[in-house]
Design brief:
The strands form two sheets. Strands 1-2-3-8-5 form a five-stranded antiparallel sheet, with no helix packed on it. It folds into two domains: 35 residues; 132 residues, Immunoglobulin-like, CATH 2.60.40. The termini are far apart. The longest helix is centred in the first third of the chain and has 34 residues. By secondary structure, the chain is α+β, with helices and mostly antiparallel strands. It is built from one helix and ten strands, in the order H-E-E-E-E-E-E-E-E-E-E.
Length: 174
């Protein structure tokens, strides 16, 4: 009887070892997945203006997503002649690609949605007497969506440089 108990204890110890390996492996996989959304797809472009300032557009969205995908765009006036534009606007497009893709947009606090369909969302935001205008949000792609793309168009106005633009950036698969 002692031998049977010893064999059972040995089998339990081996099974417990396998469980520990499975738990460690699962933890490593979860850590990799959790770290992945921090990496994203981004793009920027800029235009040199009179007096040395630059008008810059930036587009970013998550690289990997499970239920939702974050995105952010911005239009920036970089320089000090002038430090602020009379107005600066960013137009954003977030689009779903794939076999019958669909996206929905979550709550946004700072954007005006100018167009919305099942595959494309367009937003606009204007700041006055500012150097930056940015928009951000979350979209929820359907399981048939292969990837998300983000496009940003930056516009600005000041009497020193007029109304240049658009300066456009596209972040997404080609």
């Amino acid at each position: 009887m002692a031998r049977w108990g010893a064999k059972r204890s040995a089998k339990a110890a081996v099974a417990g070892g396998y469980r520990k390996v499975k738990v460690v492996a699962a933890s490593v996989v979860l850590a990799v997945i959790a770290a992945a959304p921090a990496a994203g797809t981004s793009a920027h472009n800029e235009l040199r203006l009179n007096r040395g300032d630059r008008l810059q557009s930036n587009a970013w969205h998550c690289g990997v997503y499970f239920r939702s995908c974050s995105w952010q765009t911005s239009a920036k006036l970089l320089g000090y002649t002038p430090a602020n534009a009379r107005w600066i606007t960013n137009y954003s497009e977030v689009k779903a690609h794939g076999i019958s893709p669909k996206i929905t947009i979550g709550k946004n606090t700072n954007v005006e949605i100018t167009f919305k369909s099942s595959t494309l969302i367009k937003t606009r935001w204007t700041n006055r007497n500012a150097w930056i205008s940015w928009s951000s949000g979350k979209v929820s792609p359907s399981f048939t969506t292969a990837y998300i793309s983000t496009r940003e168009s930056a516009y600005a106005y000041h009497r020193f440089f007029g109304r240049p633009g658009p300066v456009t950036s596209y972040a997404g698969a080609i």
